[in-house]
Design the sequence.
């Protein structure tokens, strides 16, 4: 690996990620107001000292709701893809190593599931599982897993025929050693970068699920739900939407910038095309 | 998480009455309108609706949107005008026998169906035979009244036989689910979802389920050819798209609105918002056959902590009126205007809870379906207000299908129901409170309460009926198993060149036969 | 291209399709509540429910229901929609064609713009063009569809601009100009995320190839830069782009659902959401199967194109 060159994309990406993540984490410990406390005399209030982002249709403090709801959006937006990755990567490594009917069966099943539109599949799964935040994360993970599996498998197949893998197997290393020590580091960059495109999707999907009564339960908030519910009153107040959309945009942009930067490094230094 | 304590602060009373325009104009203008300059070319009215319209079937597979459309394709024996009064439609007159156990309707002569065939009593009989057949599973079968059979002694007479006295038959027959389908339509019932077999002022041109419906004027309509040449109904699910389309004159009218959209639209020049009182409501169901709400002191405590003015204002976005925990709104004939509105009294509420054995309050769950969003809104508001007296509600939101199949009317949990205006006060009361004729949603009915409803629907003595329904409203308010805090006004919006766009007080009917377009209407080839 | 590679790919496609039918069928069986409860809604009685269920054949054992469904589906008969009481096959075609137009235009735009921008960025690596392309791409990727769609309506369709219609669709035969005007906003919303994706993958593909040993060797041999780009870099980079595009069809199909709802576009996505919310299982199954088939077919084509562009892939997999 060459010496780490300063990449403004990586820096910008990380800088963008810090505020929303910090806000969400801080929200677990401390909030300016009770996020569910109503003040019906001050609905749709514009930003002011006590309410830096104004109030929503029940007169609840928007900033507190953005902070309190952050972890849920991050759970769906990052937790969903992360869970998918944790399951898909070992499976694809195993398939690439073992080959044979296991690989074929996995790939055919994967192609079949891959062909159902993600949002529809997410809906079908969660409607079957029943509504809760945990189930929303699971449904999102299951729905996007095939995409990870496909990318990981493509990368793993290329790695599996490399000499160092063959060498390790001849040395008599255990399968798990070959999978996780030899192959894993080489397939992670493309998988992680691919994964970043699904963070935006997962937050959006999570919001759709919550809106349909399948995710976050009222009166709790998450960023996606705040946007969805505030569209109807956007002409009364635009602040709930801005307050919730800004962190989403920052997270997506941040992860994408940082991910691309990492991919470029990995790609260029290893001379490999992706997928 | 922070601990929610007194999370609700009451609002200074400031009900905006922003809109409140043409309750009378909507109905009044529709009739006897002075001649209006017609826009050149064909006059086409484009109306947008949210939600789905999968079918045009008026009897079995209907939605709110197909209800709106049906008075344009079909007629009933009777119909409601904009004020909610019953008017002749395909029947010109009617009378009941002494016991109101049978009703005789005289039919209009010389009416033609869209297929050119004459309308006769055989079509009426075919329609109701189909509806009464249990195989049809017509959802509103029970709300037509206790009809047992229909006779057609001659071409222009039909007789409805009832199993019990029922004074409201002419009203129930005015609903959108009782439209008259031709005998040929009944024979071809499997295509009724896409192929209307009616007598209405407009004929079908094309229908794409859930997307668009195009109609043209029926030149043979018995009440005269409509002014409009064409109607296009478009289904626009997204509010932003809907508002933009109206302002761009891509559509001329929006058939249903929520309060916040109405406030927004009212601010644009050239857009008229119509608002009339209605009877749609959401009810929080408190099961009266099990603790904690089996004790009326607990039900009353909850009712006393509700700030109705504030709740109604938020729930309806100022487009509604306060309700008194019973489902009879001012649009019904037997609404008791003298029943005093309950005012909040937190001290009394807390005292009642102590008396009932809940000095520290209690925890309880409310289930809401995702549609319409008002279910959730009501639950969230009640949750905040009830916390003041120590009742801690948790809310479980689920998708509508699961809600309807596992929670609604199962008698196991508290939930938020959603009801539209019925033709008569009797129907909504019987539906919600009667143990056998209705669903007794709150598991609350007693032989006495059932008897009041049965007696009231059987008598034709107006004074007696008023007295009985007033008695029932008071009972429902003081003892009943529902929190009902607001009735929604019925709202619509149109560009100002549309004259006489209808908004009804009762039901969803949207009859467009008398609508005209003035100068300024966009010309459409 | 070896025949064996071709046959193998086709066999894979068919197997996937068969597995898909099972997955779809099981998924739809998991849904709680059925069309009967939704149809009757707040007016249901137990007796009416059972009657409707019997009429729908919902009371038969699962494998029987699956086999009879599959058998009929193979003959193009997807049963009757419960909510709309019409033959499903007749119902799904018009929205399917509408969605195909929308997705088709979006796909072509994504492919052309995405690859062109990606290549341009890579060739201008680190310079202004590169940054400009990347900025546009990142802008597109960071705004979710359900925010971008209404935003575009507010900007381009509302007063004062009013450049484009806010929603709906007209058929091509009614007027190609009008048809196109209705397509622009939904297509733009669909493209935003995917162009970014394709740009980035193409860009890194080109970069990776252009810095590889054999391109360096070609340059060292004194081949003109234009020729190196056209003959060696582009075909290699294109394999990457094709693979990414094939995968994106899946994402595109998913976004179509959201976008059609915002723009009131009468397509299959809207029909699917309706069919799920009304528990119209026959309709859910037919829509999902139709979209799944398109996806599997597109991927089959992508595989074959890749095999044609890069015969080594075909050799290896044959």
Sequence:
């Amino acid at each position: 690996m060459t010496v780490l060159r300063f990449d403004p994309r990586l820096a910008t990406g990380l800088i963008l990620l810090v505020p929303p993540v910090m806000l969400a984490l801080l929200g677990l410990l401390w909030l300016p107001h009770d996020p569910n406390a109503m003040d019906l005399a001050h609905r749709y209030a514009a930003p002011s000292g006590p309410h830096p982002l104004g109030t929503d249709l029940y007169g609840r403090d928007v900033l507190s709701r953005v902070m309190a709801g952050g972890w849920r959006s991050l759970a769906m937006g990052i937790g969903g893809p992360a869970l998918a990755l944790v399951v898909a990567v070992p499976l694809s490594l195993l398939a690439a190593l073992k080959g044979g009917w296991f690989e074929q069966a996995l790939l055919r099943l994967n192609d079949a599931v891959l062909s159902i539109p993600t949002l529809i599949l997410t809906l079908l799964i969660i409607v079957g599982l029943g509504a809760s935040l945990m189930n929303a994360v699971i449904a999102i993970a299951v729905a996007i897993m095939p995409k990870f599996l496909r990318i990981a498998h493509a990368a793993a197949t290329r790695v599996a025929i490399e000499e160092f893998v063959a060498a390790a197997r001849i040395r008599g290393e255990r399968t798990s050693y070959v999978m996780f020590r030899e192959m894993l580091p080489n397939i992670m960059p493309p998988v992680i970068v691919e994964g970043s495109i699904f963070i935006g999707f997962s937050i959006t999907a999570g919001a759709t699920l919550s809106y349909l009564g399948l995710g976050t339960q009222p009166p709790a908030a998450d960023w996606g739900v705040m946007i969805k519910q505030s569209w109807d009153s956007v002409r009364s107040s635009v602040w709930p939407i801005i307050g919730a959309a800004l962190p989403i945009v920052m997270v997506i942009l941040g992860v994408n910038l940082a991910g691309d930067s990492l991919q470029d490094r990995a790609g260029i230094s290893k001379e490999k095309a992706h997928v | 998480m922070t601990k929610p304590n007194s999370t609700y602060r009451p609002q200074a009373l400031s009900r905006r009455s922003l809109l409140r325009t043409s309750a009378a104009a909507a109905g009044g203008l529709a009739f006897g309108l002075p001649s209006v300059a017609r826009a050149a070319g064909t006059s086409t009215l484009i109306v947008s609706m949210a939600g789905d319209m999968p079918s045009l079937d008026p009897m079995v597979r209907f939605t709110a949107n197909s209800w709106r459309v049906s008075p344009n394709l079909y007629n009933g024996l009777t119909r409601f005008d904009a004020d909610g009064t019953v008017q002749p439609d395909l029947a010109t007159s009617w009378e009941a026998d002494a016991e109101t156990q049978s009703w005789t309707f005289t039919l209009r002569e010389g009416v033609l169906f869209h297929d050119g065939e004459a309308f006769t009593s055989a079509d009426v009989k075919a329609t109701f035979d189909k509806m009464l057949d249990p195989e049809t599973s017509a959802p509103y079968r029970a709300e037509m009244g206790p009809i047992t059979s229909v006779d057609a002694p001659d071409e222009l007479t039909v007789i409805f036989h009832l199993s019990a006295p029922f004074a409201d038959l002419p009203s129930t027959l005015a609903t959108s689910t009782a439209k008259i389908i031709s005998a040929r339509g009944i024979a071809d019932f499997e295509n009724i979802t896409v192929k209307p077999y009616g007598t209405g002022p407009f004929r079908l041109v094309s229908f794409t389920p859930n997307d668009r419906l195009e109609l043209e004027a029926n030149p043979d309509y018995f009440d005269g050819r409509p002014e409009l040449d064409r109607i296009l109904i478009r289904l626009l699910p997204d509010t932003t798209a809907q508002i933009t389309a109206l302002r761009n004159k891509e559509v001329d009218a929006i058939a249903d609105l929520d309060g916040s959209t109405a406030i927004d639209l009212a601010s644009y020049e050239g857009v008229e918002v119509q608002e009339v009182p209605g009877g749609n409501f959401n009810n929080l169901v408190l099961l009266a056959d099990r603790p904690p709400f089996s004790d009326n002191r607990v039900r009353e405590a909850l009712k006393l902590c509700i700030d109705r003015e504030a709740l109604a204002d938020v729930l309806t976005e100022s487009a509604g009126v306060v309700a008194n925990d019973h489902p009879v709104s001012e649009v019904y004939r037997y609404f008791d205007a003298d029943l005093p509105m309950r005012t909040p009294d937190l001290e009394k509420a807390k005292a009642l809870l102590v008396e009932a054995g809940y000095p520290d309050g209690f925890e309880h769950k409310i289930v809401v379906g995702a549609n319409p969003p008002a279910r959730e809104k009501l639950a969230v508001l009640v949750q905040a207000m009830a916390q003041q007296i120590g009742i801690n509600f948790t809310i479980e939101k689920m998708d509508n299908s699961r809600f309807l199949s596992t929670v609604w009317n199962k008698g196991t949990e508290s939930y938020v129901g959603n009801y539209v205006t019925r033709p008569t006060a009797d129907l909504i009361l019987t539906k919600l409170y009667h143990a056998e004729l209705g669903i007794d949603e709150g598991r609350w009915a007693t032989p006495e309460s059932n008897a009041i409803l049965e007696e009231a629907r059987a008598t034709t003595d107006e004074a007696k009926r008023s007295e009985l329904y007033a008695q029932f409203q008071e009972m429902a308010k003081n003892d009943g198993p529902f929190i009902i805090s607001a009735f929604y006004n019925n709202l619509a919006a149109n560009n100002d060149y549309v004259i006489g766009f209808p908004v009804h007080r009762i039901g969803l009917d949207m009859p467009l036969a008398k609508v005209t377009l003035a100068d300024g209407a966009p010309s459409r080839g | 291209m070896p025949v064996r590679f071709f046959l193998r790919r086709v066999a894979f496609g068919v197997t996937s399709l068969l597995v898909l039918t099972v997955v779809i069928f099981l998924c739809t069986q998991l849904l709680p509540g059925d069309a009967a409860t939704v149809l009757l809604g707040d007016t249901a009685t137990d007796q009416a429910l059972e009657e409707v269920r019997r009429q729908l054949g919902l009371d038969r054992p699962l494998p029987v229901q699956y086999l009879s469904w599959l058998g009929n589906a193979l003959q193009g008969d997807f049963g009757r929609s419960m909510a709309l009481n019409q033959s499903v096959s007749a119902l799904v075609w018009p929205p399917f064609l509408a969605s195909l137009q929308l997705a088709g235009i979006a796909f072509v735009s994504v492919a052309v713009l995405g690859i062109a921008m990606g290549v341009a960025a890579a060739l201008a690596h680190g310079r202004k063009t590169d940054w400009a392309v990347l900025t546009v791409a990142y802008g597109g990727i960071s705004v979710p569809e359900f925010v971008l769609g209404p935003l575009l309506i507010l900007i381009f369709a509302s007063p004062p601009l009013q450049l484009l219609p806010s929603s709906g669709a007209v058929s091509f035969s009614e007027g190609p100009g009008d048809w196109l005007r209705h397509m622009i906003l939904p297509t733009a919303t669909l493209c935003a995320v995917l162009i970014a994706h394709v740009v980035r993958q193409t860009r890194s593909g080109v970069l990776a190839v252009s810095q590889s040993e054999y391109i360096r060797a070609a340059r060292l041999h004194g081949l003109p830069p234009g020729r190196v780009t056209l003959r060696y870099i582009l075909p290699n980079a294109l394999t990457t782009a094709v693979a990414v595009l094939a995968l994106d069809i899946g994402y595109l199909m998913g976004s179509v659902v959201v976008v059609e709802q915002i723009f009131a576009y009468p397509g299959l996505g809207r029909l699917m959401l309706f069919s799920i919310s009304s528990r119209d299982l026959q309709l859910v199954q037919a829509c999902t199967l139709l979209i799944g088939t398109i996806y599997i077919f597109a991927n089959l084509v992508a595989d074959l194109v890749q095999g044609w562009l890069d015969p080594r892939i075909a050799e290896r997999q044959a």
Residues 169 and 182 of chain C are 6 Å apart (CA to CA). Chain C is about 80% helix and 0% strand. Chain C has a mean pLDDT of 81.
